[in-house]
Design goal:
- The protein has two domains: 431 residues, Amino acid/polyamine transporter I (Up-down Bundle), CATH 1.20.1740.10; 167 residues, no CATH class.
- Helix 8 runs antiparallel to helix 18.
- A hairpin with a 2-residue loop joins strand 5 and strand 6.
- The strands form two sheets. A six-stranded mixed sheet has the order 5-6-4-3-7-8, with helices on both faces.
- It contains 27 helices and eight strands.
- It is of the alpha/beta class.
- Helices cover 60% and strands 9% of the residues.
């Protein structure tokens, strides 16, 4: 979601408080769009949803009490106080957290840790489909309140808005990103004002802050009170989003927004909606819009739609960021990444992800037709992700922060109680649409694990064909192969053997460059690698060098920039005299495959459609030489 973060000048003359205020304002439009649009549909779902409860005083106070304590326990204590501490060198998000704790876990637990983390990441792609659908539908459903005659236009209008949103992605958000924060500031201020006006209708609703109302509701409400937890959970849906944006704003601006504005505004609005329902039970059909006076409902509809678009924009750009992380960590094939800003490295656009999300999101809107129906699927995705985050954070507390086992266990259990309750209630909605995010996540998980396993098998097969580098250097140094002027850079995934492309070049062209560099690019499980630590260069003798370049999962590997580093300049490497030699592997089925047939088929499909290394590494087209070979997998 860094795509929306502006450049913050690091000037000593600029007051620190000004920079912090600007970060906090911008974070409103990126971090809190998801949770900020929950008032559009959360209360409605509690009383009019698939498993809504009857509208009476006990139920309203019980639901409101559950909402208050969900915001306190899950959003405030778990995410803002506890999980935000689990940063991977400043970066947040489930993949960053998985990479952080993975290094501290060994044996078979390491494998399952990766699987769990990848499944959580896969669920976030489902969130990238469902958040725009439920947010835009929830906002546009105000048409049924403002102008009931236009109620039939809710679905087509939502689809049109989403089409425009996804079409806009390729242009980037540098121009409009600056207005997202101010718009959300107006939005949260409006939520607070509406909430206060609702509370004045029946101030007794404030007694719901007493947790005894929640306890009584759960104890005496039967199965219905448990099922409604799936709707109550919707008030906490932005927890994962704010954690994922940790690296783009830092912990302090995010917390300032929550404790000074967002948390208070949301709480007041939920109280106001429940107070309205207490005085007018029929208003539960759409308490958000009915909370506003009639003259203000049309402007509120426009503002809500803008907030929904901003929330959708944030989760879409977050999917781009997640994809780049997965590619750099080796869980997805190389994919086209377009930078939409010359000054902001975080502003990226990934066409394949954008169109897949767009088609899926519009399909969800057309198939589910209302925010109420989408809510069932929405809860399954996020409750599962939140449980996974709690488990991974417990490992961080134990293995990285050094907490004693008893303290880590107590904290984890405290957070798992609400998490598992929401998870259990959401799982009961699988037949009502909850199956959708699970199917999406399982499909993406299989794709990620198949790509990872396929790369391992391919590396093993290619490694068998490699010759010892000492023997090749000795043969070339003996004068059997003529040397030509310039530098050849051979990209290879192996740090010890001789690249297959060099052997093919010697066999076909029977020449070698006077200076040969074997380059291996590694993606590390940290967000960023400083330029001073980027390159490791070894002199192998006779004009041969081995270079290892390291990048974090939030960085883009641009090989031409490596040639400008002092280490390579010192050995005489010049961009104008450098040829990049690549091996283009043609995968063919082996008689005795090392992969299951379905995995091999999927891996071969992904490999054929992956972006070529010349585009991914930003190699100059007129300096690339490709040599093909067949590899059995």
């Amino acid at each position: 979601m860094e795509i929306l973060a502006p450049a913050i000048p690091d000037s000593a003359a600029e007051p620190r408080s000004s920079r912090l205020a600007l970060l906090a304002l911008t974070a409103l439009g990126v971090v809190y769009g998801d949770i900020g649009t929950s008032p559009l549909y959360a209360i409605h779902e509690c009383f009019y949803g698939e498993h809504g409860v009857a509208v009476n005083r006990e139920n309203v106070l019980g639901v409101m009490s559950l909402i208050v304590w969900t915001l306190i326990l899950v959003v405030t204590l778990k995410y803002h106080v506890y999980v935000l501490r689990a940063d991977n060198r400043g970066e947040g998000g489930i993949l960053a957290l998985m990479a952080l704790v993975r290094a501290k876990v060994g044996g078979h637990w390491r494998h399952w840790l990766v699987v769990i983390g990848l499944f959580g990441a896969a669920l976030l792609y489902a969130d990238g489909v469902l958040t725009p659908a439920i947010s835009v539908l929830g906002a546009v459903e105000g048409l049924a309140v403002v102008a009931p005659a236009f109620a039939k236009l809710v679905v087509p209008a939502s689809a049109v808005i989403l089409v425009g949103l996804f079409l806009f992605q390729r242009r980037g958000t540098a121009g409009v990103g600056a207005v997202f924060g101010p718009v959300m500031l107006v939005w949260f201020s409006t939520l607070a004002v509406l909430g206060v006006s609702g509370i004045l209708r029946d101030p007794s609703v404030l007694t719901a802050i007493n947790p005894i109302h929640a306890v009584r509701f759960l104890a005496h409400g039967g199965a219905g009170s448990f099922l409604v937890l799936g709707a109550v959970f919707l008030v906490a849906t932005g927890g994962e989003a704010l954690y994922a944006d940790l690296g783009h704003f830092g912990e302090r601006p995010i917390q300032i927004d929550w404790f000074c504005l967002v948390g208070l505004s949301l709480t007041l609005n939920y109280f106001g909606q429940c107070a309205l329902v207490l005085t007018e039970p029929s208003a539960a059909v759409n308490p958000f819009y009915l909370l506003a006076p009639e003259w203000a409902r049309l402007p509120l509809l426009v503002l809500a739609t803008m907030a929904a678009i901003i929330a959708s924009q944030a989760i879409i750009s977050g999917s781009f960021s997640l994809t780049r992380q997965a590619v750099q960590l080796g869980y997805l094939p190389r994919i086209e990444i377009i930078h939409t800003s010359a000054t902001e490295i975080g502003q990226i656009y990934i066409p394949a992800v954008n169109w897949l999300l767009g088609v899926a999101t519009i399909g969800v809107v057309l198939a589910f037709e209302s925010s109420s129906h989408v809510a069932s699927a929405y809860g399954v995705a996020l409750t599962t992700t939140m449980v996974i985050t709690t488990l991974l954070a417990s490992l961080a507390a134990r293995k990285i922060w050094g907490w004693p086992a008893w303290l880590a266990a107590i904290v984890t259990i405290v957070f798992l109680i609400p998490d598992s309750s929401f998870f259990g209630a959401a799982m009961l909605k699988i037949p009502d649409g909850g199956w959708f995010p699970l199917v999406v996540a399982i499909a993406i998980l299989l794709l990620m694990t198949s790509w990872e396993k396929g790369r391992e098998v391919l590396a093993t097969v290619v490694g068998v064909r490699m010759l010892p580098v000492e023997k090749v250097i000795a043969d070339i140094a003996s004068g059997k192969v003529p040397r030509v002027r310039g530098t050849a850079v051979y990209l290879t995934g192996d740090e010890s053997g001789t690249p297959i492309a060099l052997l093919h070049n010697l066999k076909i062209n029977r020449i070698a460059h006077e200076r040969i560099v074997f380059l291996t690019v590694h993606g590390l499980e940290i967000p960023a690698v400083p330029d001073a630590e980027r390159l490791e260069l070894h002199d192998l003798g006779q004009g041969f060098y081995r270079a290892v370049a390291r990048y974090g999962f939030m960085q883009d590997p641009e090989v031409p920039r490596l040639l400008r580093l002092p280490e390579l300049k010192a050995i005489g490497v010049k961009t104008s005299e450098t040829t990049f030699v690549l091996s283009r592997n043609q995968l063919v089925p082996a008689k005795r495959p090392s992969l299951a047939r379905w995995r091999r088929t999927l891996f071969m499909f992904l490999s054929r459609n992956a972006v070529g290394p010349e585009r991914f590494y930003r190699l100059p087209p007129n300096r690339v030489l490709e040599l093909g070979m067949q590899v059995e997998v």
